[in-house]
Amino acid sequence: MATQRLFFALSLPDDMQQALVRWRADTFPAGAGVPVAAANLHLTLAFLGEVTPETSQRLQTLASRIVQPGFDLDLDDAGHWPRPGVVWLGCQRAPRGLLQLASLLRAQAARHGCHQSPQPFHPHITLLRHATQPVALPPRGFHWRFRVSRFSLFASEYSRGRTRYRALASWPLSSQDPHALLSAP
Predict the structure, then answer these.
(1) Residue 83 lies in a domain
(2) Pairing with 45, which of 24, 56, 154, 155 sits 20 to 30 Å away (CA)?
(3) Does 183 map to a domain?
(4) Where is this motif: HXTX 2 (predicted)?
């Protein structure tokens, strides 16, 4: 049975992708790591791994039932994880809505046989891969903000030596009262 490598994530607006690519080029030396393509910049909410079409459909049905308000996301933190070789951009204080959405998607994925890391959720956007040597991080003071109004299910596809992330489905977050509770049957 054919499977797909899937994950739930937040897309970045196109103009923000381009701004981050320019900032990354100005901030990190060329040999610091392998840059992630602008179109592949995203914030993973729940990694699913290799998933059958049936499980994908069940998870998409559950995702379509999520009722949660949108939220603002501030990107104002950066770090380097030497062991996996990742330089990342994230948030100093993750918004409640982001943590709730990721928690719900990860729990649904686990209930449907998709292994979830025991590590706590650390919202981040991978900027560089294969960054195994020490990397000088930029001084504080950088900041981007965007409104998160939807989340998506992506397929990770590898072809001709390149990985491409393709959105399979997207769901809106509501514009209702930000104090409304998250719910999904």
Answers:
(1) yes
(2) 24
(3) no
(4) 124-127
Domain count, the chain: 1
Find out whether 69 and 178 touch, Cβ atoms under 8 Å: yes
Instruction: Count the alpha carbons within 13 Å of 94 in the hemisphere toward its beta carbon.
Output: 18
The average pLDDT across 73-90 equals 96
- SS3 for 31-45, per residue? HHCEECCHHHCEEEE
Instruction: Please give the helix or strand (H or E) that residue 104 lies within, else none.
Output: helix 96-111
Q: For 25, left (φ over 0), alpha (ψ -120 to 50), or beta?
A: alpha
pTM above 0.85, yes or no: yes
Q: Which residue has the tokens 């104090």?
A: 179
Question: What does the block give as tokens for 183?
Answer: 């719910």
- Whether residue 180 is contained in a domain is answered as no
Convert the pLDDT of each residue in 42-81 to its tens digit: 999 999 999 999 999 999 999 999 999 999 999 999 999 9
The catalytic site residues sit at 42, 124
Q: Which of 157, 67, 164, 62 is nearest to 114 (CA)?
A: 62
Pick the more confident residue, 140 or 43: 43
List of residues 6+ apart from 166 with CB closer than 8 A: 154, 155, 157
Cα 130 from Cα 124, distance rounded (Å): 16
